[in-house]
Specification:
The chain has 3 domains: 2-88, no CATH class; 93-198, Tetrahydropterin Synthase, Chain A (2-Layer Sandwich); 257-289, no CATH class. The protein is built from 8 helices and 10 strands. It has helices spanning 2-22, 27-49, 125-131, 137-154, 159-164, 166-181, 200-253, 257-267; strands at residues 50-53, 57-63, 66-72, 75-78, 83-89, 93-103, 109-120, 186-193, 280-281, 288-289. The strands form 4 sheets. The protein has a 3-stranded antiparallel beta sheet with strand order 3-2-5, with helices on one face. Strands 6-7-8 form a 3-stranded antiparallel beta sheet, covered by helices on one side. The protein has a two-stranded antiparallel sheet with strand order 1-4. A hairpin with a 6-residue loop joins strand 9 and strand 10.
């Protein structure tokens, strides 16, 4: 707007100086000065009427403070010289909640940093500008909404579930944030949560619980191993007993003690003992030998 007002003034000064230089009596000089003034004003109005809207933004037009119905897309536009264009970003932007604090369902203090990517719907840019003409809607509405969403969602989970069900927590938080920011024409693209942090007392309790669980799992594995080993021994003993029973049955079928003696004779190498105790029968003969008999 200053460019529109200032340029004709400059043109008027230049024209006046031109006329004074050549004298008032010279009519052609006055005409030339007038033509210069008109030309400069026309060029100034033309340049002031051309407005460029950058990529990933839209232009909200105001005339003397009143918001116009038309919203300009990216590119070059011809507008009224006295109109103003306000750029509203519609590309992907980032909001962040640093060291957000909330309480879990079991009243544990939870801390984290949340980052959300969002974009403004182009057709809602006019309404968003009307709500926040200074274009500080991010700090005025979006970031506080992110903090509030974190507190609301966290209160539905116990502290341990925030870790074990992290994907579900993130999904729930994204949906809740989208619902909250929809009134501003904002679409939440994605949401990222850094590691949750808790009080030192809670961290110690979690560590103790994990350790106890590891010991319990080890004891369960040891019990299963012992049971398997016992079953193996039982099976082995049953197998040996059955083998003995089969052998005993075979011996009875084949003559009992005589069969055993026959098997011993078959395995005998034909050599008699070098020494025998008194009244000890000779192998396979049954005659008692005397002391020192060879």
């Amino acid at each position: 707007m200053g460019f529109i007002i200032g340029t004709p003034i400059v043109a008027l000064i230049v024209s006046a100086a031109f006329a004074l230089h050549f004298g008032k009596q010279r009519e052609p000089s006055l005409k030339a000065g007038a033509m210069t003034f008109i030309t400069v004003c026309a060029i100034s109005l033309l340049l002031a009427s051309l407005q460029t809207v950058k990529q990933s933004t839209v232009g909200v037009v105001t005339v003397f403070g009143k918001i116009q119905d038309e919203v300009l897309s990216a590119g070059l536009h011809f507008i009224l010289p006295w109109a103003q264009v306000h750029s509203v970003k519609v590309g992907v932007q980032v909001i962040r909640a640093n060291q957000a604090e909330a309480s879990s369902k079991d009243l544990q203090n939870v801390y984290t940093t949340i980052t959300a990517n969002y974009s403004v719907a182009p057709e809602r840019a006019r309404a968003l500008f009307a709500m926040s003409p200074s274009l500080t809607y991010e700090t005025d509405y979006l970031v506080p909404g992110l903090y509030e969403t974190f507190k609301a969602v966290t209160s539905h989970y116990i502290a341990e579930e925030l870790i074990t069900q992290r994907a579900a927590v993130s999904e729930n938080m994204t949906q809740s944030l989208q619902t909250k920011l929809a009134q501003y024409g904002v679409t939440v693209r994605d949401l990222n949560i850094t590691d949750f942090s808790f009080s030192s007392e809670f961290n110690k309790a979690i560590e103790a619980k994990v350790t106890a669980g590891q010991y319990a799992e080890k004891a369960q594995r040891d019990l299963q191993r012992i049971q398997v080993e016992a079953q193996q021994k039982i099976a082995e003993a049953e197998g040996q007993a059955r083998a003995i029973a089969i052998q005993a049955e075979a011996i009875q079928v084949n003559g009992g003690a005589e069969y055993i003696q026959l098997q011993a004779i078959n395995k005998w190498d034909g050599r008699l003992p070098a020494y025998l105790a008194p009244n000890t029968p000779l192998p396979f003969i049954g005659v008692a030998g005397g002391a020192g008999d060879r």
